[in-house]
Amino acid sequence: MGQPAWWKEVLTLSRSAYLHISPEQRIIDAVGDTQTLLGRDPESLVGVVIGELKDIRTRLGSAVAECFANSEIRPGETWGFEDGAGCYYGLADGSFVIKLTAGQHVNQGIIGRLADQLPVKVAYVDREGCFRFNNQAYVDFVGISQEALYGQPVSTVLDAASYEKVWPRFQRAFAGEAVTYEDKLSLADGRTFYFKVSYLPDYLEGEVVGFYAIIQDISEYRAMIQLLRDIHTGVNRTDISANEIVDRLLRDALAYLSLDIGLVSRVIGDQYIVKWSASEIADISPDDRFDLGDTYCRLMLDVEDVFHTSQAGADERINGHPCYQQFGLESYIGTPLHLNGEVWGTLNFSSPHPRHQPFTQVEIELVRLIADAVERVITDQAEIDQVRQELDRMADKASRDYLTGLPNRSYLDQHVEELIQAHDTRDEPFSLAVVDIDHFKQVNDTHGHDTGDTVLQWLGARISESLRDGDLVARTGGEEFVIVMRRAHAPEARKVVERVREHIKSEAVMLEDGHELPITFSSGLSEHTKGEPFSRLFKRADKALYAAKHAGRDRVKTV
């Protein structure tokens, strides 16, 4: 049902507006006095990307929603921030609502109070490149108080190279442009992060007097994406051994989790047998054995799921365990490994140092993902190789002509496109000849289609054995073949095709009744011209073939 009249009246009287925004940051719906607040009617806002609006409150809402999308909030959970300058509500379906009101003038004081509640870093920079405001999240991140930052140039918190990167972007913001970018920047204290940054110009009487900077640390997100890529690449590599694949998976995970020891173990009865290990601090090697009950993995297998602790000494489940008493491992996260529905062993990561923060849901899910990858690697390597060989055979079959075994049109298209690229960029010429069997219809009509198939197979084999190394012949349909000659200008290519023609003419197909069937062909030849597409090259060669047929067959014509 539509909105009640009283609701529309209240929105008008209160000079308020609501924007409903999708997880993809596009406005789904807009109601209220958007004309006063944003200078646009509600209908014209639908479909607009929120980042295109220049109101600082909408940009803050966008950053907050993105921050929560990458945080611990799970699907179905909601969140909210409220202040006189704006209110933000995260809905259960992942969309969010921004409430704007004109009841208070949006000045730095109001924005400051709002920004201090938000999990994203916010700063205000004046035209001299100096800080005039930093919210609490920014202060906590750089470790410098608001009082100490006030009036200081931005160069005091960035190293020289990073400040040199951002200063041109400052100039764009001072010129009135809303600037958004992602970049790797280093702080003056040596720490390096990936940031997503938006600069929103601030106007006073039509002049830009500074800009708001909304800053998100996306380092964890970038590291996670890289780890996912490494996992995907690692388990699909065929040029390294299973040992190398697992070692890389362990080391990539250690780097992401900031831990020191990575192990894959085989569990047999009460024995914990190390199969793979990765560590710069622990002297643990494959085939080392421990009593399962003396490892944290015993606790993990008891719960049959990911088990973790970030401060074992303060964890009542663990601080009395033999593993803690003997090795003093403060941080641990591990999960069972299953093969054929049974527990095969464990994957675990640990460190003698406590973590500053508990393991996040993202980290827990990544450990599960790495376990899946390890399970795949250690599952019957011979079976994996067999599957890969079968896939290779299927791919090869898909690119071959079923009758002659020669490359088909699909393979030819790909091959010629590569040669065109080589010619256009590296000046490597090539030529192409279209070959057509003379009077092939008569062969089929007189001797039958089985004999016709035999002729096609015979001709394909004879052409192949007559070509130079690196040349290719493909069957493209019916009695038509295409010969591709690499690094050959037309005169040299013509010699190749003439040699093939003479070779075919000198022999004959032996029929089942003992009779011989002589075969000839006609051919049209063209040399590739730089910038010419395959279709045009083929058309020229086909035109030359028609000329060869018209001139009496059993000959080669060049165009």
Short description:
This protein is of the alpha+beta class and 559 residues long. It is 41% helix and 27% strand. It is an enzyme of class 2 (transferase).
Q: Any overview of this molecule?
A:
With 559 residues, the protein is an alpha+beta fold. It has 19 helices and 23 strands. The strands form 5 sheets. The chain has a 6-stranded antiparallel beta sheet, with helices on both faces. Strands 2-1-5-4-3 form a 5-stranded antiparallel beta sheet. A 5-stranded antiparallel beta sheet has the order 7-6-10-9-8, sandwiched between helices. Strand 20 and strand 21 (516-518) form a beta hairpin. Helix 9 (219-235) runs parallel beside helix 13 and helix 17 (449-466) packs across helix 18. The protein is extended, with a radius of gyration of 35 Å. Residues 428-559 form the GGDEF domain. GO terms for molecular function: diguanylate cyclase activity.
Contiguous helical run count: 19
Q: Looking at CATH, which topology of the largest domain would you report?
A: Alpha-Beta Plaits
- Give the radius of gyration: 35 Å
Distance between the termini: 72 Å
Which architecture of the largest domain per CATH?
A: 2-Layer Sandwich
Features:
4 domains; Beta-Lactamase; alpha+beta; 23 strands; 559 residues
Layout: helices, strands, pairs:
Blueprint: H1 5-14, E1 16-21, E2 27-32, H2 34-38, H3 42-45, H4 56-69, E3 79-83, E4 86-90, E5 96-101, H5 108-117, E6 121-126, E7 131-134, H6 136-142, H7 146-149, H8 160-174, E8 179-186, E9 192-204, E10 207-217, H9 219-235, H10 242-257, E11 261-268, E12 271-279, E13 289-291, H11 296-303, E14 307-309, H12 322-327, E15 331-339, E16 342-351, H13 361-378, H14 381-398, H15 409-426, E17 430-437, H16 440-447, H17 449-466, E18 472-477, E19 480-486, H18 490-505, E20 508-510, E21 516-518, E22 521-527, H19 534-550, E23 556-558
Parallel strand pairs: 22-23
Antiparallel strand pairs: 1-2, 1-5, 3-4, 4-5, 6-7, 6-10, 8-9, 9-10, 11-12, 11-16, 12-13, 14-15, 15-16, 17-19, 17-22, 18-19, 20-21
Helix pairs in contact: 9-10, 9-13, 10-13, 16-17, 17-18
